[in-house]
Write a structure and sequence with these properties.
The chain has 255 residues and is an alpha/beta fold. It has a single domain, classed as Rossmann fold (3-Layer(aba) Sandwich), CATH 3.40.50. Helix content is 36%, strand content 23%. It contains nine helices and ten strands. The strands form two sheets. A six-stranded mixed sheet has the order 6-7-8-3-9-10, with helices on both faces. The chain has a four-stranded antiparallel sheet with strand order 2-1-4-5, with helices on one face. Strand 4 and strand 5 form a beta hairpin. Helix 3 crosses helix 4. The longest helix has 17 residues. It is globular, with a radius of gyration of 19 Å. The structure holds adenosine-5'-triphosphate. The site of adenosine-5'-triphosphate (ATP) has 11 residues, from strand 2 and helix 1. It comes from Rhodalgimonas zhirmunskyi.
Length: 255
């Protein structure tokens, strides 16, 4: 097993008297896709917010490699390779699909708008953007405005934007939520492909058991903010405590 890429240690956040994430210690590894599950209100999104920096913990740390991210703003964490997909908020609705991705490539490469004045550089950025278009099967929609894309394609564009940022840690919060069944396999394939690159770590919050089964190398279960279980999917799904607390004794999908 390679060294962990991301470690949370004793991560805790209180809102008033309520402990939303309680002493969660977990290490995530490159080449591994971990799905975080748990009942409504278990603390999954809050845990994600603590990792990506939307929230600062009351106690505990978030480290990536040798770097302590705990007190960094989300933008600084992004520069350190934490990439989180946010539904629609990263899209420029009135720019084309290609332009959206080109901006993400440009932002990652650290160059300002003035680089558009350099024709050679512009064409390199465009070429790179086309690579992500192809990877996400959006090439045919390159010239459509992001706002005009069907919902499923917008979700694919979000993945393309994230890929263009080249993070080491990919974070997805219910990536197929609200998506029609015909688009779902494409997005799942994209996420599954990310971990083929053994340098990438993928974290996913998910309710749908079909998605969990399709993607998870490892499942962690949060309950009342605490880490209830952590392990390979079969082991976790079959453990009695998880069945009692999360799945119900029948083991049926809670979603
Ligand atoms: N900013 C906040 N202020 C106060 N309480 C909060 C805040 N954010 C989250 N909480 C509370 O923390 C708990 C965990 O919420 P969180 O959204 O992380 O759960 P979740 O597991 O993602 O749930 P769901 O599956 O329903 O999205 C909940 O009780 C929630 O009400």
């Amino acid at each position: 097993m390679p060294d962990p890429s991301l470690v949370t240690e004793g991560l805790t956040i209180r809102f008033g008297g309520h402990v939303a994430v309680n002493n969660v210690s977990c290490a995530f590894h490159p080449g591994e896709l971990t799905v975080i599950v748990g009942p409504n209100g278990a603390g999954k999104t809050t845990y994600f917010n603590l990792i990506s920096g939307q929230l600062s913990p009351s106690e505990g740390t978030v480290r990536k490699g040798g770097t302590d991210l705990t007190r960094m703003a989300p933008s600084a964490r992004a520069r350190h390779g934490i990439g989180r997909a946010f539904q629609l908020t990263n899209l420029f609705p009135n720019l084309s699909v290609l332009e959206n991705i080109r901006l993400a490539v440009q932002a990652r490469s650290g160059h300002g708008w003035r680089m558009f004045s350099n024709v050679g550089r512009f064409s390199t950025l465009t070429q790179e953007a086309r690579h992500y278009l192809e990877a996400t099967k959006l090439s045919e929609k390159a010239d459509m405005l992001a706002a005009e894309l069907p919902h499923g394609d917008q979700r694919k564009l979000e993945v393309a934007l994230l890929m263009a940022m080249e993070p080491d840690i990919y974070m997805f919060d219910e990536p197929t939520a609200g998506m029609s069944l015909d688009h779902t396999p494409d997005v799942l394939d994209l996420i599954a492909a990310l971990k083929q690159d053994k340098t990438k770590t993928v974290l996913l919050v998910e309710h749908k058991m079909s998605v969990v089964r399709a993607l998870a190398d490892r499942i962690i279960v949060l309950h009342n903010g605490e880490l209830l279980a952590d392990g390979p999917p079969d082991e976790v799904m079959q453990s009695q405590i998880v069945r009692d607390v999360y799945l119900g004794s029948s083991g049926e999908d809670a979603a």
